[in-house]
Amino acid sequence: MKFAPLGYRFGSLAPLSGGALLFSKKYRPDLVAAAATQCKSTVMPSSARARRSRALRSKDPAWATLPDDELLQLRLKDLKLKLPGTWLEDCLDKLNGELKAHGLGVRIHGWLSDEWFSPPATPGIAFPFYLAHPRLIRLERKMMLEVEGGSRRECMRILRHEAGHVVQHAYGLHRRKGWQSLFGNASKPYPASYRANPASKRYVQYLPRWYAQCHPDEDFAETFAVWLTPRAKWRKQYAEWPALKKLEYIGALMEELDGARPPPAKRTQLDPVSSLTMTLGEHYAGKRKRYAVDTPTIFDRDLKRIFARETANRRAPLAAAVIRKNRAKVIRAVSRETGEYPVALEAALNDMIARSRALSLRAPRSNQATRLELTAMLTSKAVYSHYASSSRRHWFAV
Predict the structure, then answer these.
(1) What is the rounded CA–CA span in Å between residue 267 and residue 106?
(2) What is the pLDDT of residue 384?
(3) Which one of 158, 272, 329, 374 has the fewest beta carbons within 10 angstroms of its own beta carbon?
């Protein structure tokens, strides 16, 4: 049996004065008593010791085993995250390989920040910090009900879009008259939200929520991403669409730029995660407020059609409980069909739950039939069409 040196605290291994050992030849009761007092004061709670032990065994950071409420109290900079060595580095290398295959002289660098973006002044792309660790991916999914770029396929789709921004600014393409005639004025201010027409064929459909309709820069980036995607059959997919002219223009433009190097630019990092002092809790509070929709109380007529009054169906389950039980499946189905933000759908369903309670509604039909009705109803009302007007155009937060 081995004994720890008395001259060090457990955990921190800070040397005590005197440096005596427990079984030294000269027994010093005063040192023993002092050391025992210090050891007692630095012993971690059993739950904290267990978390630290698991983190050490898995080579994960200590915060990886924290519960959500404690993790949300940490500042982003204190996560000590880095992009090199993660799966994101492989995705960035693949993107640069695709650009090189077309003869483009831009080599993109990457870093971690609070969201996806690419600054005009540097040929780089910021990745959202949560993609750098599985624990943070789980937290993102819990807080936002989705993980943007959480799979390699989706990550590459977003990277190709961001690469469009990098190429545009690196070569100054938005200053060309041909670019402006097809995509518009790049200096146009970005809106806080945008109204999308899902039926429009003037824009490619690449990222969800018809993002090409947001701004001329996004129109170019989306069109560039379609063009860059390996083995994409865009000529067939967009045949007889006005958007095909934009794709053909980009194809001809990239042939012109084949082998051309852009003007030199500094490889800087804007808002790296190591500089962000907000806590995870503050980050998600702002993000949820930005993307959630404050739904008005407009569901009463549909709720009364799907459910029934409590007076006639006292034995049937509460409508509010049935909506809550099916909430996750309904959100996934409607988001997949319409492209609506899951957080916005969650807000709408929370409104329905509240109104169902206020109206004292019950669910006399089967759970599956009720879920299908809810999905169909929310799909028909999704993406803000019922807040703005009766047109097919929809609003999205930028």
Answers:
(1) 11
(2) 45
(3) 329
